[in-house]
């Protein structure tokens, strides 16, 4: 479905991505991991044609990315950014309806169909009650769910998520990924840039690790999510244990000697905090 | 699960009725404003130093428009009411309308609720053109029965826009921040040139100053005819892209990801907005505050959707400038006129401060 061949991208003279090659088939749910500045966002922006390619090419459904019109591409790919910067008082429903733009024509207005699709998306993201509220007056997490709804309203086969759930509380994070997972089982393709390693390990079937603009590991989660790999890539000590329910690998971070709280009754130092790291 | 389904269909129904209600409010407001505009146009025509009865005024308008047979009223009221006053009233309404629309366009493109139609230097270009015409005395020669001032002002405005677009382009893309910077550079440079012209030609100083402050003195149907085509073209360009303008306020990256052809749409909007501004400035001079305050006020009441924003800003901007001009020509005793830009600034400034205060941390400062 997506084929990336010797892709390179630059900002001015700085090389941000160098010679990436990978292939994604329809129905994959992929976690895109890597430290800050490793090029995750740039890769997603290349895939959504926001950042021009310096070299190489991207082929989506057999067609070169450059050959799509703006609206066509938005019908195939939907993106969820890290956050929304908006200084204008749109209603939340109006923001979600923007996701219907690729299906509308000049002077277009929202049809009944657009409206029910937008409402459906808001139902899935638990934002129906926000519909008539102004986007600049709801909380950060609510805004984020509204943008996810907007992406769902685009009805695209490929979803590109850039830290889409970073601003959400735990319950909503799980709710959103449950939703992505269900959509994935019905054939949707997801590429999710994530800092939350354990969330990635819980839901993604395949992980692509980026470091310094290059792919350093690409493979099934169970094989790639190891203490050795994670410690190497993030340059910090990581231990991996099994999730008690699902058996998915989960990362445990180890504080450096002398810091961290000591759990009562145990001589070993480890933290039991959520592994959220932003 | 079925429970959830009923809940969401209930919500959907509720939302539909809410949306229908807001459409009714919108339609009602629109109707009220159109009615107010028509009444204002007639009423403002009746105000002036020469007093006529309302019957005469209405008859004169009817005859001027060709609705009543000729010789219904005498020559003088016909001339004063139809040729002098009505044309001026219509022109001030049109200029106010396009400034309101242009303001909402520039605020949207620049993603800044504090932008106005003059932010990117179009006004300075127009002022420079007009100053040239005034200083070199070519204001006297006529073109299509119209002085060269509007023509040179229009050319100046379009020239400045072109310059700003060229300067604001980085690696083939027009960026918002570079656009504003280029606007400031061009405006400052042109202001210096205007100052130079003033210094070289002292006789023209007062005329230039008066023109730059904005005025409808002596304007007539010919000015309406001159600016109307540009206004209509500009309105077409921006109204056509109102939905894209909504999306552009989310930023360039998201606009692309939502399927907007950012380069094309933004150039159309910039050109459309600048045409509107240039058309207004070329016949009326630089009139501030209408393009800043009106879209702001409308956005606070109606929300940010640009289609509604533009339509309401047009009507409200027209009304505001129409009455400002009535004030400008009647306020001073003895028939002296104030530049209308002075009136809009005197009223608009404090009003805008009030808006800022009331919505602190809200829509405006966010």
Enter the CATH topology name of chain B: ABC transporter involved in vitamin B12 uptake, BtuC
Q: Average pLDDT of chain B, to the nearest integer?
A: 85
CATH topology of chain A: Rossmann fold
Number of DSSP-assigned strands of chain A: 12
H and E string of chain B? HHHHEEHEEHHHHHHHHH
> CATH-wise, what's the superfamily of chain A?
P-loop containing nucleotide triphosphate hydrolases
Describe the structure.
- The complex is a heterodimer of chains A (278) and B (366).
- Chain A is of the alpha/beta class and 278 residues long.
- Chain A has one domain: Rossmann fold (3-Layer(aba) Sandwich), CATH 3.40.50.
- In chain A, 30% of the residues lie in helices and 26% in strands.
- Chain A contains 9 helices and 12 strands.
- In chain A, α4 packs across α5.
- The two termini of chain A are 31 Å apart.
- The C terminus of chain A is likely disordered.
- In chain B, the strands form 2 sheets. In chain B, strands 1-2 form a two-stranded antiparallel ribbon. Chain B has a two-stranded antiparallel sheet with strand order 3-4.
- The C terminus of chain B is likely disordered.
- In chain B, a hairpin with a 2-residue loop joins β3 and β4.
- Helix content of chain B is 74%, strand content 2%.
- Chain B has 366 residues and is mostly helical.
- Chain B has one domain: ABC transporter involved in vitamin B12 uptake, BtuC (Orthogonal Bundle), CATH 1.10.3470.
- At the A-B interface, α2, β6, α3 and α4 of A face α1, α9 and α10 of B.
């Amino acid at each position: 479905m997506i084929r990336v061949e010797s892709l390179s991208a630059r900002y001015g003279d700085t090389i941000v991505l160098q010679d990436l090659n990978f292939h994604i088939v329809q129905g994959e749910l992929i976690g895109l991991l890597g430290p800050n500045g490793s090029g995750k966002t740039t890769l997603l922006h290349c895939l959504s044609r926001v950042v021009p390619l310096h070299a190489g090419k991207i082929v989506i459904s057999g067609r070169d990315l450059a050959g799509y019109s703006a609206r066509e591409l938005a019908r195939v790919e939907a993106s969820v950014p890290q956050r929304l910067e908006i200084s204008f008082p749109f209603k939340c429903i109006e923001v979600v309806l923007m996701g219907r733009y690729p299906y509308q024509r000049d002077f277009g207005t929202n049809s009944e169909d657009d409206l029910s699709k937008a409402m459906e998306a808001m139902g899935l993201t638990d934002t129906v009650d926000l519909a008539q509220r102004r986007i600049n007056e709801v909380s950060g997490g609510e805004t984020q769910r509204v943008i996810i709804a907007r992406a769902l309203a685009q009805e695209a086969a490929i979803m590109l998520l850039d830290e889409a759930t970073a601003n959400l509380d735990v319950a909503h994070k799980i709710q959103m990924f449950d939703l992505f997972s269900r959509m994935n089982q019905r054939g949707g393709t997801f590429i999710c840039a994530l800092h939350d390693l354990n969330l990635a390990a819980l839901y993604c079937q395949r992980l692509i690790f980026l470091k310094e603009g290059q792919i350093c590991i690409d493979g099934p989660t169970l094989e790639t999510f190891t203490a050795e790999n994670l410690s190497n890539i993030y340059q910090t000590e990581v231990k991996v244990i099994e999730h008690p329910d699902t058996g998915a690998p989960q990362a445990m971070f180890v504080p450096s000697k002398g810091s961290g709280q000591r759990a009562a009754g145990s001589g070993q130092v480890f933290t039991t905090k959520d592994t959220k790291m932003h | 699960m079925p429970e959830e389904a009923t809940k969401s269909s209930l919500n959907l129904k509720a939302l539909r009725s809410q949306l229908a209600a807001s459409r009714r409010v919108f339609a009602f407001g629109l109707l009220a404003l159109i009615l107010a505009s028509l009444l204002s146009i007639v009423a403002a025509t009746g105000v002036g130093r020469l007093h006529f009865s309302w019957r005469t005024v209405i008859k004169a308008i009817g005859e001027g428009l060709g609705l009543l047979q000729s010789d219904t009223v005498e020559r003088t009221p016909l001339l004063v009411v139809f040729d002098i006053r009505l044309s001026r009233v219509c022109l001030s309404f049109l200029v106010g309308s396009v400034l309101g629309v242009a303001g909402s366009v520039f605020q949207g493109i620049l993603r800044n609720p504090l932008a106005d139609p003059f932010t990117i230097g179009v006004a300075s270009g127009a002022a420079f053109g007009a100053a040239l015409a005034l200083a070199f005395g070519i204001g006297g020669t006529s073109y299509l029965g119209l002085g060269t001032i509007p023509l040179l002002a229009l050319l100046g405005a379009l020239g400045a826009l072109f310059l700003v677009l060229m300067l604001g382009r980085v690696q083939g893309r027009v960026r918002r921040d570079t656009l504003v910077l280029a606007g400031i550079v061009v405006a400052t440079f042109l202001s210096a040139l205007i100052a130079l012209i003033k210094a070289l030609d002292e006789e023209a100083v007062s005329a230039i100053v008066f023109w730059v402050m904005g005025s409808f003195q002596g304007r007539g149907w010919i000015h309406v005819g001159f600016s109307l085509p540009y206004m209509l073209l500009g309105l077409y360009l921006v109204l056509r892209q109102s939905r894209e303008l909504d999306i552009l306020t989310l930023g360039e990256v998201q606009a692309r990801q939502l399927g907007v052809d950012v380069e094309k749409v933004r150039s159309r909007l910039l050109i459309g907005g600048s045409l509107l501004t240039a058309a207004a400035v070329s016949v009326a001079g630089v009139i501030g505050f209408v393009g800043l305050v009106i879209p702001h006020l409308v956005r606070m009441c109606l929300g940010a959707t640009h289609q509604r924003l533009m339509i309401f800003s047009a009507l409200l901007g027209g009304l505001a400038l129409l009455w400002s001009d009535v004030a400008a020509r009647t306020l001073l005793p003895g028939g002296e006129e104030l530049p209308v830009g002075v009136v809009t600034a005197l009223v608009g400034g404090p009003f805008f401060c009030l808006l800022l205060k009331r919505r602190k941390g809200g829509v405006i400062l966010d």
